[in-house]
Fold this protein.
Amino acid sequence: MALPLDRFIAAGGGLLHRRVLLRRGLVLACALPASRAALAQTDTDSAALPDWMQTPGAPFSGYGQPSPHEAGTVRRIGANRLVDGNGVSWTPLEELEGLITPSGLHFERHHNGVPRIDPARHRLLIHGLVKQPLAFGVDDLLRYPMRSRMLFIECGGNSNAGWHAEPIQRPAGSFHGLVSCSEWTGVPVALLLREAGVDPAAAWVIAEGADAIAMNVSLPLAKLMDDALVALFQNGERVRPENGYPMRLIVPGWEGVLNVKWLRRLQLSDRPVMARNETAKYTELMPDGKARQFTFVMQPKSLITSPSHGQRLDRPDVYEIRGLAWSGRGRVQKVEVSADGGRSWAEAALEAPVLPCCLTRFRAAWRWDGRPALLQSRVSDETGAVQPARRALLAERGSNGYFHYNAIVTWAVDEDGAVTHAYA
């Protein structure tokens, strides 16, 4: 086994060339003895068949649910102890595969709970600097031409524990899981704005939600005219209440707070509203004392989801490193992985489709020899932007940050195969 793999070493620490992933037999050969042993023990005698093969199964259901054996795959919740409806829930990234996040596991950020909206009474108002104010009900919007796109949404506060002086020890999703990816289907905002007639003086749009806090933020008009959607569907079904039912603003590649849920109002203006969530929040105090504001675009970021914190490698062997990469600037161009803390890198294989402003799954083959290792991933996007090392991010932005953390993440593997979060 060792001799063939030596020909494919691509970087220090046992990282193999991505071509190895195409040679499935080579990578998986170490698992065959166990598989053959299990097969040899299989008894085809009907008396030895499991009980679920000997009795009729469950009847049809009106709406499918996960297996009860997967009940542990849930969102982790971090709610305000005084106000249940204020807080977040994280997507368990380390337990999922592929690109699409199940709707029921999409991360949440609520400021005052999930409103119980009657879609028959809900309206989207477009007003302000327009020639003709318009109001749209759900049924009105369902008559318009729609567009579908697979897009990630990431909270600006995702991964904020990375600013801490010591590495937090939590599963990957409980640390970085304020990012999810769905197929969103809805009406282009530009279509509705053109129908209302945009005043030449308009430069900003104030978007407001129908929750009990009337969440509102300012967005440049140009972005909404470019690619924003009023989404009515998520992953093929109507948007769920916690994700913005009956309609949600989708702003591709931009921070999550701008993707206003339960959308009820778009007011065109010549200036931003300077709301709480674009002044006191979602801004950063820089080392020179100035505050960075209206950053909008989510920068390139990647994360190894396996192996990651809380997982354990059983023995020295060949493993598949799996992870996710994304960028609000466009498509992922390249993901590199390191097993020696960034001293050397090997290019990972990207799994199709690779779409703009969408999660991209990457994979790499790694031969672990039983010695301590530091696993990292680094993404570059199509604009040339590269995910920074933590040290470089702190040098640029200082240590007072809370939002927009996108530094390289390091997982430390010890001699026993235990995986923890580390700074390298």
